[in-house]
Amino acid sequence: MSENIDVLIIGAGPSGAVAAAYLHNEGFSIKVVEKNKFPRFVIGESLIPRCMDHFEAVGLLDCIKKKNFEIKKGARFMQGPIVCEFDFSKKHTDGWDWTYQVPRAEFDKTLTDELQSRGVDIDFEKEVIDVEFVDNVSHTTIKDVDGKETKITAKYIVDSSGFGRVLPRLLDLDKPSDIGKHSSIFTHVKDVNRPEGWDGHRITFDIVSQSTWLWVIPFSNGITSIGYVGPTEYLESFKGSKEERLREMMKLSDYYVGRFDGLPYEFEPRMIKNVAKSVKQLYGKGYVLTGNSAEFLDPVFSSGVTFATESAHLGAQLIVKELKGESVDWEVDYTQYILEGVNVFGTYVKEWYTGNLQKIFFSGSENPVIKSQICAVLAGYVWDRSNPFVKNHARLVKTVAHITDLEKENAKS
Question: What is the Cα–Cα distance from 29 to 121, expressed in whole angstroms?
Answer without folding.
Answer: 9
